[in-house]
């Protein structure tokens, strides 16, 4: 009995042992095979650029060999890249010499140009879009039937940077007025602004003395957009900032492509007068990139600059017919006004109403499942 | 390479949905099994015009000569054909008082499904309700062509409420009663035959802090097909309330759902599940017997839900709203089957259930549906024959019946459990119809009803049922192929 048991155990352990041995043997064999194949593999990588997936260098246990292999691979990659670049340059220079068309430049892949396909992107041939535009809340302002008039206020408790931002925004948006918030309800303020025929209300919300949200309400029944505000640099904190004149600014809205973006763009557009004074050379930019709206305020100037080096070019240009301007024309920008970034958190149908309001769009966490999905 | 396309959603079963939007356009979306169930906009009726914004819509989904009633913002009511979009009748502004329609627009519209007693099939009845609470019941004859003059009965009008704004109006399945509710208007039920108010709700008491929430109902629906006494109302203060008019005037049950107003409530055909949608785009199904949330419909829906529609035959619901997507969801798995972008803010969605998958006449798909209608009709006929007086007498009996029915669905849901698996692996329409028919049968015949349960407990019979389904699948497939060829 006893004997049997022990024998059983021993056999089991034996079998296990043999198995392990076999396994080890296999491993060793593998390694040997690898080390044997080391040279051929390298040659293969040289010849066909990339070995089989089974013979990954990370499988090599010996660190020296492995790192040597890695270094070699890296060098190969580098030379390959250099070769390619050289070939490309050669092609280009050849094309330049022969006066042919240059080979097409490759476009790098970015998050924006690989964004998820979105059927809500506005198309210029969409008649329903224009019919919708004519019917929406901003059409009276944007058709310049009404002059935009903006009421600005803050949250209940504000200090330092909040009022400073308001002061800057007052210079940016013409025909805007600041009212002290006091202890009024926002709904009451909206009602008041409606009676006074304001076209929009802007509320700057501060928390911990730092502006962190912007509320734009279209009146009388326009939508309410709630933005998160970040990266604020005030006018006076900008280096080499310019001082804007009192002219009506031009407005640049970039990349508001989808229906939602289009609507937000129109909301922003309705804040500014529709007849910019180009003499003022003042431009306000709302640039949308990856759903972040960057606000910038610039002055620009076209300068003619005389350069000794570009004498030939200068002659060419004058020959072309530009008689009034001497020399090369350069556009120069000077930033003025605040600089900040907005991100839309919700767009509400109707005026401000947190309890009973209907939302046209709310940002929900379940939407953030892809880096390549954008809504504006 | 990262994923640059949106996730492909599983296709939906063949169906036809009609949506109405803010610009007064009516769009027809169809999904066909040939195209892999991807719904597409096939037709667009009307020209974009903001004053023709569709406020409310109702469909009479009968087999022969279906009708679609649409109420516009300007107060015009149109009767259309849901098949080709021809305007049959266009009724001018209903207001007798000549008040500008902006102040007193129509909020609710119902097109009656049951035929009137004089059996002239061209006569149809309409119930409308305005924000000020003027309810109008009128009958209209539908001419063969647009040129014919329309005979308009003298409309019967009554005031639903003295003050406040009516926001929701719903007629029960047998079309004898209607519920109205709104901002400052407690939900109340009216007998449509006699135009009398039979019941008014009482606002719930103040809460423990002594705060009274003002009445503001934003949606309502009747729960059961045969029972007008139970209905569900959604409020602006994100509360869903169940009322039972035979029990008490205060809600029998109420629960909160999220933080924005409940904008749409729709009942399921089983009579105890409801679908609720709110102003921030959350859609959920709730078992109203317990008030427990069954689950949410997740699908990146971001705009307020204005309307939810339950397909009468398929296990599918459609939702639409301010995000201008028509979304079609599976009921059981609560998966998004597909979403169609319709460009405008949508106000309403209805299903056209008599949609045949193939264009060829006499195809396979309509056959079961027509059979179903045969099933349906006797039920409707019974209801029509019994006058309302007898109904009130029957109350006790019907109560017990309703209790039975309350038990029914549970048992049927139990029955359904093994079926669910089948449904998941392949949504064959034919088999589904077969199931539906069985379900109907069990509902109709009380005596037989117990049998299936016992049958379900015995395993061999279950297998029989399965084989039946399998047979039906098999028998249907070759037919479909022959048509394809």
From TrEMBL, chain A:
<dbReference type="GO" id="GO:0000460">
    <property type="term" value="P:maturation of 5.8S rRNA"/>
</dbReference>
<dbReference type="GO" id="GO:0030687">
    <property type="term" value="C:preribosome, large subunit precursor"/>
</dbReference>
<dbReference type="GO" id="GO:0005730">
    <property type="term" value="C:nucleolus"/>
</dbReference>
<protein>
    <recommendedName>
        <fullName>Brix domain-containing protein</fullName>
    </recommendedName>
</protein>
<dbReference type="GO" id="GO:0042134">
    <property type="term" value="F:rRNA primary transcript binding"/>
</dbReference>
<dbReference type="InterPro" id="IPR007109">
    <property type="entry name" value="Brix"/>
</dbReference>
<feature type="compositionally biased region" description="Basic and acidic residues">
    <location>
        <begin position="27"/>
        <end position="49"/>
    </location>
</feature>
<dbReference type="InterPro" id="IPR044281">
    <property type="entry name" value="IMP4/RPF1"/>
</dbReference>
<dbReference type="Pfam" id="PF04427">
    <property type="entry name" value="Brix"/>
</dbReference>
<feature type="region of interest" description="Disordered">
    <location>
        <begin position="25"/>
        <end position="61"/>
    </location>
</feature>
<dbReference type="GO" id="GO:0000470">
    <property type="term" value="P:maturation of LSU-rRNA"/>
</dbReference>
<feature type="domain" description="Brix">
    <location>
        <begin position="148"/>
        <end position="353"/>
    </location>
</feature>
UniProtKB/TrEMBL annotation, chain B:
<feature type="region of interest" description="Disordered">
    <location>
        <begin position="361"/>
        <end position="485"/>
    </location>
</feature>
<dbReference type="GO" id="GO:0030687">
    <property type="term" value="C:preribosome, large subunit precursor"/>
</dbReference>
<dbReference type="InterPro" id="IPR037379">
    <property type="entry name" value="WDR74/Nsa1"/>
</dbReference>
<feature type="compositionally biased region" description="Basic residues">
    <location>
        <begin position="391"/>
        <end position="400"/>
    </location>
</feature>
<dbReference type="GO" id="GO:0042273">
    <property type="term" value="P:ribosomal large subunit biogenesis"/>
</dbReference>
<feature type="compositionally biased region" description="Basic and acidic residues">
    <location>
        <begin position="422"/>
        <end position="432"/>
    </location>
</feature>
<dbReference type="GO" id="GO:0005730">
    <property type="term" value="C:nucleolus"/>
</dbReference>
<feature type="compositionally biased region" description="Basic and acidic residues">
    <location>
        <begin position="456"/>
        <end position="485"/>
    </location>
</feature>
<dbReference type="InterPro" id="IPR011047">
    <property type="entry name" value="Quinoprotein_ADH-like_sf"/>
</dbReference>
<keyword id="KW-0853">WD repeat</keyword>
<dbReference type="InterPro" id="IPR001680">
    <property type="entry name" value="WD40_rpt"/>
</dbReference>
<dbReference type="InterPro" id="IPR019775">
    <property type="entry name" value="WD40_repeat_CS"/>
</dbReference>
<feature type="repeat" description="WD">
    <location>
        <begin position="298"/>
        <end position="339"/>
    </location>
</feature>
<keyword id="KW-0677">Repeat</keyword>
<protein>
    <recommendedName>
        <fullName>Transducin/WD40 repeat-like superfamily protein</fullName>
    </recommendedName>
</protein>
<dbReference type="Pfam" id="PF00400">
    <property type="entry name" value="WD40"/>
</dbReference>
<feature type="compositionally biased region" description="Acidic residues">
    <location>
        <begin position="373"/>
        <end position="386"/>
    </location>
</feature>
<dbReference type="InterPro" id="IPR015943">
    <property type="entry name" value="WD40/YVTN_repeat-like_dom_sf"/>
</dbReference>
């Amino acid at each position: 009995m006893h004997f049997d048991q022990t024998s059983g155990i021993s056999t089991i352990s034996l079998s296990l042992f043999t198995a392990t041995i076999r396994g080890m043997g296999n491993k060793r064999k593998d390694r040997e095979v690898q080390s044997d194949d080391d040279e051929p593999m390298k040659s293969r990588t040289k010849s066909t650029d990339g070995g089989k997936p089974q013979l990954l260098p990370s499988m090599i246990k010996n660190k020296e060999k492995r790192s040597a292999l890695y270094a070699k691979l890296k060098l190969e990659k580098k030379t390959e890249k250099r070769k390619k670049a050289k070939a490309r340059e050669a092609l280009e220079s050849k094309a330049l010499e022969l006066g042919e068309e240059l080979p097409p430049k490759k476009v790098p892949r970015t998050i924006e140009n690989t964004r998820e396909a979105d059927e809500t992107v506005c198309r210029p041939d969409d008649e329903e879009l224009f019919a919708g535009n004519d019917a929406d809340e901003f059409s009276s302002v944007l058709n310049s039937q009404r002059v935009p008039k903006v009421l600005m206020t803050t949250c209940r408790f504000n200090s330092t940077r909040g009022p400073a931002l308001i002061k800057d925004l007052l210079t940016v948006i013409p025909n805007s007025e600041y009212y002290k918030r006091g202890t009024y309800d926002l709904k009451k303020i909206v009602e008041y602004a409606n009676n006074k025929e304001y076209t929009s209300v802007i509320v700057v919300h501060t928390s911990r003395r730092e502006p962190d949200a912007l509320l734009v309400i279209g009146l009388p029944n326009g939508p309410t957009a709630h933005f998160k505000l970040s990266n604020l640099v005030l006018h006076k904190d900008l280096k080499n900032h310019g001082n804007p004149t009192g002219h009506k600014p031009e407005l640049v809205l970039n990349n508001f492509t989808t229906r939602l973006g289009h609507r937000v763009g129109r909301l922003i557009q309705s804040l500014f007068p529709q007849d910019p004074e180009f003499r003022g050379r003042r431009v306000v930019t709302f640039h949308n990139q990856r759903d972040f709206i960057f606000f910038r305020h610039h002055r620009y100037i076209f300068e003619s600059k005389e350069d000794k080096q570009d004498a030939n070019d200068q002659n060419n240009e004058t020959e072309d017919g530009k008689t009034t301007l001497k020399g090369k024309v350069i556009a120069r920008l000077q930033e003025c006004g605040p600089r900040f970034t907005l991100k839309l958190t919700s767009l509400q149908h109707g005026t401000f109403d947190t309890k009973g309001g209907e939302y046209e769009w709310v940002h929900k966490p379940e939407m953030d499942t892809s880096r390549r999905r954008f809504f504006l | 390479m990262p994923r640059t396309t949106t996730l492909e959603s599983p296709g939906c079963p063949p169906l036809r949905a009609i949506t109405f939007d803010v610009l007064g356009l009516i769009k027809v979306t169809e999904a066909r099994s040939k195209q892999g169930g991807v719904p597409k906009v096939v037709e667009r009726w009307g020209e974009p015009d903001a004053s023709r914004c569709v406020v409310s819509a109702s469909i009479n989904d009968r087999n022969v000569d279906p009708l679609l009633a649409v109420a516009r913002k300007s107060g015009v009511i149109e009767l259309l054909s849901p098949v080709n979009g021809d305007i049959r009748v266009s009724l001018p502004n209903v207001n007798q008082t000549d008040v500008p329609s902006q102040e007193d627009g129509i909020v609710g519209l119902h097109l009656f499904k049951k035929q009137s007693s004089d059996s002239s099939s061209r006569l149809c009845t309409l119930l409308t309700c305005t924000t000020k609470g003027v309810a109008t019941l009128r009958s209209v004859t539908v001419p063969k062509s647009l040129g014919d003059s329309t005979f308009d009965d003298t409309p019967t009008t009554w005031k639903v409420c003295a003050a406040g704004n009516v926001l929701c109006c719903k007629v029960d399945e047998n079309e004898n009663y209607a519920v109205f509710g709104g901002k400052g208007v407690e939900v109340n039920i009216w007998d449509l035959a006699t135009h009398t108010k039979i019941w008014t709700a009482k606002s719930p008491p103040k809460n423990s802090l002594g705060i009274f929430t003002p009445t503001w109902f934003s949606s309502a629906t009747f729960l059961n097909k045969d029972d007008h006494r139970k209905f569900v109302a959604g409020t602006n203060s994100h509360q869903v309330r169940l009322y039972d008019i035979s029990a008490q005037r205060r809600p029998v049950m109420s629960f909160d759902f999220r933080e924005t107003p409940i904008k749409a409530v729709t009942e399921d055909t089983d009579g105890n599940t409801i679908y609720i949608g709110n102003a921030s785009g959350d859609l959920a199904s709730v078992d109203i017997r317990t008030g427990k949330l069954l689950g949410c419909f997740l699908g990146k829906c971001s705009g307020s839900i204005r309307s939810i529609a339950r397909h009468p035959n398929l296990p599918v619901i459609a939702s639409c709203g301010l995000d201008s997507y028509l979304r079609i969801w599976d009921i059981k798995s609560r998966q998004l089957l597909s979403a169609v972008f319709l460009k405008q803010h949508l106000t309403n969605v209805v299903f056209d259930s008599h949609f045949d998958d193939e264009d060829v006449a006499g195809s396979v798909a309509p056959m079961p549906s027509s059979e179903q209608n045969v099933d349906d009709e006797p039920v409707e006929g019974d209801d029509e024959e019994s006058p309302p007086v007898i109904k009130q007498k029957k109350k006790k009996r019907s109560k017990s019946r309703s209790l039975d029915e309350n038990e029914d669905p549970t048992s049927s849901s139990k029955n359904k459990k093994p079926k669910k698996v089948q449904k998941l692996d392949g949504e064959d329409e034919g088999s589904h119809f077969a199931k539906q028919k069985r379900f109907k049968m069990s509902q109709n015949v009380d005596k037989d009803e117990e049998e299936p349960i016992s049958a379900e407990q015995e395993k061999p019979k279950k297998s029989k049922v399965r084989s039946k389904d399998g047979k039906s699948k098999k028998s249907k497939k070759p037919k479909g192929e022959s048509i394809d060829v």
